[in-house]
């Protein structure tokens, strides 16, 4: 097995001992630190070509711990290669995780993408802003307030969707899929290959919302806290091109998350959509 294979089970002993992000950083407020998120975590970020990709899906407030998401809540789950994709159909709750299993047909890098069934809520504009601030979208709440987006709207309807991504190498070599899109409303699209960056490098990630780069959006980064430790989230801000620059200061599994508010074509003036996404990838040492 290649020396730079990143194993969540051996990243500083366990996946719970992971690297965290810094740079262009402001300490996150408590409301962003404890947002409820959905993420997927591969057992291995690189698997042999005769093995199966195994992934755990959890919902919680402290990466990577949390509770299992029921399979009935999953609306879409795919393994996406550079030119192929397949549905993940084998999934079940095992302990505190939703477990997903899939074996690609050929070597290469694969994007794992999972979407939960969205939920629609009737609220006041203040209610939506409060939801955003509690669930990791403080920068979006500020943007909407600054734009006076809810002028004349006393009651609104918002549909909230959760999306989770991770990246896995299957076998040796093969085409790269790190820049591949799943077509979800909010995506993290690395500019450079996460498999080719190591401790001390920088990962550049474009934030794409509704098919377009999202400038100035807030992106939260948090390590899986060590047992008994508290690690406040850190905040990165995308540049004018929707790109965040992430210096990789520690080995382990990393988690990015963001929220984006948009309106679908043809939506009524008081109908809004909230997309919340996470992206998990592994960082190894150069040795």
Describe this structure in words.
- The protein has 287 residues and is mainly β.
- The protein is built from three helices and 20 strands.
- The chain has one domain (9-283).
- Strand 6 (74-80) and strand 7 (85-87) form a beta hairpin.
- The protein is globular and about 60 Å long.
- The model is unreliable at 1-34 (pLDDT under 50).
What best-fitting shape do the alpha-carbon axes yield? globular
Main sheet makeup: 11 strands, mixed
Q: Please tally the helical runs, counting DSSP H or I stretches of 4 or more residues.
A: 3
Classify the oligomer: single chain
Return Rg in Å: 18 Å
Distance between the termini: 13 Å
How many structurally independent domains? Answer: 1
Low-confidence stretches: 1-34
Strand content: 35-45%
Broad structural category: mainly beta
* Amount of helix: under 10%
Q: What is the typical, i.e. mean, pLDDT?
A: 86
SSE ordering: EHEEEEEEEEEEHHEEEEEEEEE
Overview features:
287 residues, 44% strand, 11-stranded mixed sheet, 20 strands, globular, mainly beta, 5-stranded antiparallel sheet, single chain
Quick description:
With 287 residues, this protein is mainly beta.
Question: Would you spell out the secondary-structure blueprint of this structure?
Answer:
Blueprint lengths: L25 E2 L2 H4 L3 E6 L3 E2 L5 E10 L2 E4 L5 E7 L4 E3 L2 E5 L2 E6 L5 E9 L2 E5 L1 H10 L3 H9 L9 E15 L15 E5 L11 E8 L2 E2 L4 E5 L11 E4 L5 E5 L4 E11 L8 E13 L4
């Amino acid at each position: 097995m290649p020396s730079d294979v990143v194993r969540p089970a051996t990243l500083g002993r366990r996946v719970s001992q992971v690297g965290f992000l810094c740079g262009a950083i402001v300490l996150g407020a408590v409301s962003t630190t404890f947002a409820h998120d959905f993420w997927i975590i591969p057992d291995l970020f690189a698997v042999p070509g005769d093995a199966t990709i195994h992934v755990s899906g959890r919902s919680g407030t402290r990466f990577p711990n949390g509770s299992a998401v029921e399979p009935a809540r999953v609306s879409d789950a795919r393994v996406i290669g550079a030119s192929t994709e397949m549905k993940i159909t084998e999934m079940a709750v095992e302990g505190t995780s939703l477990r997903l299993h899939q074996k690609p047909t050929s070597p290469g890098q694969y994007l794992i993408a999972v979407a939960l069934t969205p939920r629609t809520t009737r609220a006041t504009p203040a209610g939506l802003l409060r939801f955003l601030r509690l669930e990791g979208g403080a920068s979006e709440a500020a943007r909407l307030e600054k734009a006076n987006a809810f002028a004349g709207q006393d009651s609104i309807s918002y549909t909230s969707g959760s999306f989770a991504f991770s990246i896995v190498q299957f076998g040796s070599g093969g085409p790269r899929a790190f820049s591949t899109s799943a077509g979800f409303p909010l995506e993290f699209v690395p500019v450079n290959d996460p498999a080719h960056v190591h401790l001390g490098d920088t990962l550049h990630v474009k934030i794409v919302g509704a098919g377009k780069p999202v400038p100035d959006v807030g992106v939260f980064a948090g390590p899986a806290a060590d047992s008994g430790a508290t690690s406040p989230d850190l905040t990165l801000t995308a540049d004018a091109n929707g790109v965040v620059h992430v210096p990789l200061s520690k080995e382990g599994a990393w988690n990015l998350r963001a929220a984006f508010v948009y309106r679908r074509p043809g939506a009524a003036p008081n109908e809004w959509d909230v997309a919340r996404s996470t992206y998990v990838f592994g960082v190894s040492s150069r040795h």
